[in-house]
């Protein structure tokens, strides 16, 4: 549900100059989902490389989000609202990217 909501409204992360890379739930940790996203958006990074034939500095972030027993739709909406309400890069961990000061 979260993946669909973010796909339906790319402005949720776009507001923070970011885009979704992937969202996953690991069998070993069913109490959370992981949202991995890139800033600036992956499309921008790819286009920069196409034009200038060199990598653009960027960061990839991982945000672990708790999952509860609440209805799935309510949880998905809560996650999207939280991503819209404040910059998720501030509470996510850097897990990749390219540039001088990645980690």
Could you walk me through the main structural features you see in this protein, from its secondary elements to its overall organization?
The model has no long low-confidence stretch (mean pLDDT 90). Strands 1-2-3-4 form a four-stranded antiparallel sheet. It is an alpha+beta fold and 103 residues long. β1 (19-24) and β2 form a beta hairpin. Helix content is 35%, strand content 28%. The chain is elongated, with a radius of gyration of 14 Å.
> What would you call the quaternary organization?
single chain
Helix-strand topology string? HHEEHEHE
Mean pLDDT: 90
Report the β-strand fraction as a percent range: 25-35%
The biggest sheet amounts to: 4 strands, antiparallel
Q: What is the SS-derived class?
A: alpha+beta
How far apart, in Å, are the first and last alpha carbons?
Answer: 31 Å
Helix % is: 25-40%
Report strand order across the widest sheet: 1-2-3-4
| Helix count, DSSP H or I runs of 4 or more residues | 4
Low-confidence region ranges:
none
Number of strands: 4
Shape: elongated
Give me the Rg, rounded: 14 Å
């Amino acid at each position: 549900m979260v993946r669909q909501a973010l796909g339906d409204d790319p402005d949720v992360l776009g507001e923070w100059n970011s885009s979704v890379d992937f969202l996953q739930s690991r069998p070993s940790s069913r109490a959370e989902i992981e949202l991995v996203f890139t800033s600036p958006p992956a499309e921008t990074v790819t286009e920069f490389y196409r034009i200038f034939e060199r990598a653009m500095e960027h960061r990839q972030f991982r945000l672990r989000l708790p999952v509860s027993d609440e209805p799935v739709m309510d949880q998905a909406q809560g996650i999207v609202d939280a991503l819209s309400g404040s910059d998720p890069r501030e509470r996510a961990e850097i897990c990749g990217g390219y540039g001088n000061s990645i980690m």
